[in-house]
Amino acid sequence: MLTRVGHVRRCVATLNPFLGILASRQKHALPDLPYDYGALEPHISAEIMQLHHSKHHAAYVNNLNITEEKYQEALAKGDVTGQVALQAALRFNGGGHINHTIFWTNLSPNGGGEPQGDLMEAIKRDFGSFQKLKEKMSAATVAVQGSGWGWLGFDKENGRLRIAACANQDPLQGTTGLIPLLGIDVWEHAYYLQYKNVRPDYVKAIWNIVNWENVSERFKAASK
Q1: What angle, 0 to 180 degrees and rounded to 10, lies between the N-to-C axes of helices 117-127 and 212-223?
Q2: Residues 18, 21, 27, 32: what is their CA dihedral angle, to the nearest 10 degrees?
Q3: 53: annotated binding-site residue?
Q4: Manganese/iron superoxide dismutase C-terminal domain location, by residue (predicted)?
């Protein structure tokens, strides 16, 4: 009996550091916007930005934290079935948090125009011209069925820029391997209050507020 009690105590002692790590895990937080809700008008209304950021993105963050807690509990119990069952929620809410965190920085009230330097040279090399990039990315984004995202990504293996579309909140890098540079959210909550069902008009307007400095920084980091 004493031997068994000693074994249990040793097991608890072994688990304590791991449980401590779980308990101290920092939760994800909703990032502040680098501009006011109305700063992107007239291209995106203040009402849309407030709802999109404070409600939709906040919901992804909250649900991601809840799902991660459940996952860690399943992990601690060795419950593989429970871990597998939570994968869809992790992908959806984790992707929603990743995608929106990129999206806010991809936009700026001082955006628009054309990229400069190495990014522009890469665009010309891989698409022929900046105008052709806009046309191809706009077409791919508008064509997303239901909800999803249009992306300009970097293929590190080949050293090339690529356009891709992801369904729902699937994160670009986690599902395609491409490093995200510029994303366009085409969930209806991103535009419907202002553009109704005319998605092409919303996508066209987005180009007026693209933060090319941010996209260029992402390209520089991805190219290393």
Answers
A1: 80
A2: -140
A3: no
A4: 115-218
142 and 184 Cβ atoms separated by less than 8 Å: no
Give first-to-last CA distance, the chain, whole Å.
Answer: 60
Annotated binding residue at 185? yes
Strands 179-185 and 148-155: what pairing? antiparallel
For residue 35, the one-letter residue type is: Y
Tens-place pLDDT, residues 21-72:
344 468 999 999 999 999 999 999 999 999 999 999 999 999 999 999 999 9
Which whole number is the average pLDDT over 126-154?
98
Pair 97, 196: CB distance under 8 Å: no
Q: 28 among the known binding-site residues? A: no
The owner of tokens 């608890």 is 12
How far is the CA of 50 from the CAs of 3, 69, 101, in angstroms?
61, 28, 15
Supply the pTM of this predicted model: 0.87
DSSP lists the bridge partners of residue 151 as 164, 183
100 annotated ligand binder: yes
> In this prediction, what percent of the chain has a pLDDT beyond 70?
89
What pLDDT was estimated at residue 25? Answer: 62
Query: What percent of the chain has a predicted confidence (pLDDT) above 90?
Result: 88
